[in-house]
Amino acid sequence: MSRFSHLGAFLVLIAFCANAAANDPLRAPANPLVSVDPYFSVWSNTDDLADSFPVHWTGNVKALVSFVKIDGKNYRIMGRCADMDEFAVKMNQTSRTVRATNTTYAFEDAGVLLTLNFMNPNLPDDLDAYSRPTTYLTWSVKSVDGKQHDVSIYFDATAEQCVDDVEQEVVANREETGRLDVMKLGTSEQPVLGKSGDRVRIDWGYFIVGVEKGAAQTAISSDVAGRTAFLKDGVLPEKDDADFPRKASERWPILAVKFDCGTVGDKETSKRLILAYDDIYSAEFMEERCLAYWRRDGMTTAEMLDVADEQYDDLCKRSAEFDAKLWNKAKSLGGENFASLCSLGYPQSMAAQKLLVLPNGKIACVAKENNSGGFIATVDVLYPTAPIFIAFNKELLKATLVPPLEYAACGRWPWPYAPHDLGYYPKMNGQIYGGGEKTEEKQMPVEETANMLILCDVAAKLDGNADFSKEYWKQLDSWAEYLIAKGLDPEDQLCTDDFAGRLAHNANLSVKAIVALACYADLCEYAGEKESAQKFRKTAEDFAAQWTKMAETGDHYVLTFDNPNSWSQKYNLVWDKVLDLNLFPKEVAQKEVAFYKTVMNEYGLPLDSRKEFTKVDWEVWTATLADSREDFDALMDGVYKFVNKTEPRVPMTDWYHTDSAQECNMHARSVVGGFFMKFLEEGVKKD
């Protein structure tokens, strides 16, 4: 394909971003640059890209650096290299736009307009593109002062990309594919799947920079040698640094690229490269290694990179179209603030998950509990995340359900309710949380069981049949019976919201159990189990009638059945609305909405009457209960203020203080996919 067509595709993308750039209503707590998976995840935590080095969501530096030389003068556009300040001034950044699959920065100085775009084509209707561990960086330059300018562009990435600790030793090498010149960095040790847990970074596999053959000068260098050569002389070192293996912190190895744009006029000139990460194996399931989805048919890394390069034009166009569609849909539902919120939530949610293939060939989409324990395939994480997949791709929804269902059915899980997790990311070798497989200590029986039944029914509604669930019917039926016994008035057991302490008689947890029983009744209908369907539907209706009497306390409904002076968000009621279950009187939700407006804090609605903190995903679910746009906006106003103020500057937290907007914990998690619950308010129907 010609250079012109590459530029044309990129301009389609830039045109959409540029039109919205000046009007981004929400400040991203952190700006997504590389949004691939929990390991290949790079963010800018400052408003100006040149004010800091990009970081992993854990806060560890994953330095990416870019300079531009305009008519012999050096400007810095990405990364803060203090020792280089005397050689390069900060270019004036004029805008920053975050959309679902694109983050775009614009700069203007010395008569030149420069745009730097990070494209992560996490397209829900293209699982190959979503699974592919690639991010595209594209620079576009043109003159805006009527003059011609000599322009060249520099980029480098450090070995920090491929280590957990900068004291680890790395090696570097070059390769070629059919279309690309490739440079790679990886640890010399290569402990594949050797680490698991929360705040750790990948230290196996290889970080890759690829550029089209002949399109740029490239070098494997130290940071000082590479950057100095460009800033002083406009070139890169002639010979690659061969002093390997060495520590990632020892003369900071980099992969460097220099693009010569030549003389630039008022017509746009673009240059691009691909960042990729080949993790070799992505996870374990019951002690067996799992491949990423893109490798399922034996595709090699070189083939993957060539396909990624070949599809650039198409992905530019489709990503821009998807971003616009998502933005416009969210705007129609909740205004520009809500559109911005969803555009921030989308890349974060998708990057907190990994699409892979289990040893039995089944597709699995597994989330990591970032900054909240590091668990994998956690059921009370996939539950709030689910709306993003319900809204965009039912196959991804089912792929999130496969690991816990397979685990429950394999004979390892001993309890008559659903598991909490499958281990520490990236190892799905059995539940770690609480008593795990050994005791019932700190389990979440009603919570996780109801989550699974609700979502299995949603999958059936989207498919128009129960085929997906039939394989696991024994487990699902056992879980439904458990909810009949324990769901109406839950005993003292953990749930997902026990930040202020565990509770017995939890009214919102009871709602979830009741909804789940109705969902299982619906699932039985799809499966042709008419008698069971009638049984579980009647139980759900009876429980709902009892709940209304047990929970009512004047102008609202209680947090716990034994405390009439308490209250809580009843976000689980939203399924009664979006699934059209008709279990609870309509006035229940509207009475709650009216009450919530009286107990709001500046930055949102507290989770319940005990503390001032909240969960941003549940706030959107609760706001979706509102029948009017006015009430939705009233409940969401504090959320938007929170996003604009929250500290520290990390990928969005979902647990924060409503009186200060301060993070409590738990950031960069997939649960912000729950923002898309509002997209479901018109109902969940067969595709």
User: Helical proportion?
Assistant: 25-40%
Radius of gyration: 26 Å
The general outline is globular
Count of discrete domains: 2
Taking pLDDT < 50 over at least 5 consecutive residues as the criterion, the unreliable ranges are: 1-5, 16-21
User: If helices are DSSP runs of H or I spanning 4 or more residues, what is the number of helices?
Assistant: 17
Strand content: 15-25%
Q: Termini, distance in Å? A: 35 Å
- Helix/strand-derived class? alpha+beta
The CATH topology name of the largest domain reads Beta-galactosidase, Chain A, domain 5
The first-level CATH class name of the largest domain? Mainly Beta
CATH architecture of the largest domain: Distorted Sandwich
Topology, number of strands: 26
- How are the strands of the largest sheet arranged? 7-8-9-10-18-14-13-12-16
Largest sheet: 9 strands, antiparallel
Mean pLDDT: 95
Could you characterize the architecture of this molecule?
The chain is of the alpha+beta class. It folds into two domains: 3-322, Beta-galactosidase, Chain A, domain 5; 362-680, Alpha/alpha barrel (Glycosyltransferase). It has 17 helices and 26 strands. The chain has a nine-stranded antiparallel β-sheet with strand order 7-8-9-10-18-14-13-12-16. It has a six-stranded mixed β-sheet with strand order 6-5-4-11-17-15. Strands 22-21-20-19-23 form a five-stranded mixed β-sheet. Helix 1 (3-21) crosses helix 5, helix 9 (445-463) runs parallel beside helix 12 and helix 16 (616-624) packs antiparallel against helix 17. The protein is globular. Mean pLDDT is 95; it is low at 1-5 and 16-21.
